[in-house]
Amino acid sequence: MGSSRASEIREVQAGYSRPDQGVLEGSPQRSKTIWGWVVVFVLLALLAVLLIGLWVGNSGGGEWGNTMRPNLMFNLHPLFMVLGFILIVGHTNLIYRFWPDANITALRIAHATLQLSGWLLMVLGVYAVGFSKDYSSKKPSHFVSVHSWIGLIVLIVMTLQWLCGFFGLLVPGCHGERRAAYRLTHVFTGNVIFLLGCAEILIGIDQLKPTASTNTLALTVAAYAILGGYLLSTNKFSKGRPDPDAAADRGEREPLTRQSGQAIYT
Fold this sequence. Notes:
Elements: H1 2-13, E1 15-18, E2 22-25, H2 34-58, H3 70-74, H4 76-92, H5 95-98, H6 104-134, H7 146-170, H8 176-206, H9 212-233, H10 244-249, E3 256-257, E4 263-264
Antiparallel strand pairs: 1-2, 3-4
Helix pairs in contact: 2-4, 2-9, 4-6, 4-8, 6-7, 7-8, 8-9
């Protein structure tokens, strides 16, 4: 009985239908050109890391905890921010779209882990700029610029977003319509964080000494933000099969039916 049921499930994985949607193909129907834009998105992030690395090198390098030359500590601030937000957080937001047919639990764990890693790098970046100000001979005040205010807001919202996502989506316990409703809020907030974070980095770049590398970095981040916004909003990363987790979130079990009408549940 069990082997027969397993055989039936395997048969419908290649081609099955929902009662109200007709036959769905077993392989994802994705646009062929969308992956070209994904490659461009990744290359823009790597270019941003390269450019900020050049800026750090041309500015004397970076050194953690140097109280005699706090400017070297400050140089680590933009480096950590680009590494944490552009390289890690930006790609983590798209992890569900890059692998739409992967195990949903594995994706959630990877998403949460990478988001936390990016957040930690950003916290180190904030600490670096605070340290450099504390040991600077000019003793500048903290959190007086638009850049610092928006940066603090982004970091706080990211913290709340991670905690709510961890307890609302990753940890078992929140089910049904409440979980499905929060998922929409979580996705929307993630998109806002991405665009606001990119804008925050552009404001920070504007405060650096203008050079060819910083100007190119600003253009790179702007292109990265625009392309990232497109990849987050497009529906071309479609799934080739129903998401059983989505059905569970709605508190129901959606049948996958053969064209003959026999219901098979996953």
